[in-house]
Design a protein that fits this description.
Strand content: 15-25%
Largest sheet: 4 strands, antiparallel
Structural class: alpha+beta
Radius of gyration: 19 Å
Oligomer: single chain
Amino acid sequence: MEFAEYIPFWNKLTEAQQERIAGVIEYREVPKGTHIHDSSAECLGLVAVRSGQLRAYILSEDGREITIGRLFEYDVSLLSASCVMPDLQLNAMIEAEKDTQFWSIPACLFKNLIDESLAVSAYANSLISGNFSELMWLMEQIMWKSFDKRLAAFLLEETAIEESNNLKITHEKIANHLGTAREVVTRMLRYFQNEGMVALTRGTIEIVDADKLEKLQNT
């Protein structure tokens, strides 16, 4: 049962509870660009990532996206399971940013485990607390941090994730991550280029001076 090592509370379950999970856990492989959950979809439950990269985001009333979290190998999320945690009123969408493999534990079973097991309940509350802290941090960034600093931080984060200074990403995609308009991203990237921090080509952003970006985000 390979999935067991991706479920942090597995060893704290009873044998019967483990068997119940093993009987219904779903394994999926999805290509890049697949939307695995949206506000109109049935509650997905607990998601555990085997490989790849998922992006969780929310939509504003005018349809603008903003990223609220990303999931990588061994990451676990309840962002798609507001039906499991009634106090979590968050209609998060989830899409695959890369070809991704993941498991999901059905919401109904996970809710039962929360009711039965103190360990699972504590773990779920810890996840929700972490999500709330991340959302509060995001709100502070949007409200108090200028866009040039947010963009610099995003580009540096992307280079760390991709392990490359050449980012294959569109201005539209960056705008979706940061909750702004594509034109705003384009103008700021052109400013960054004029300042010698990046070099722009079609569909690619090359980080030319990471130290300068680092200094900008920290000022």
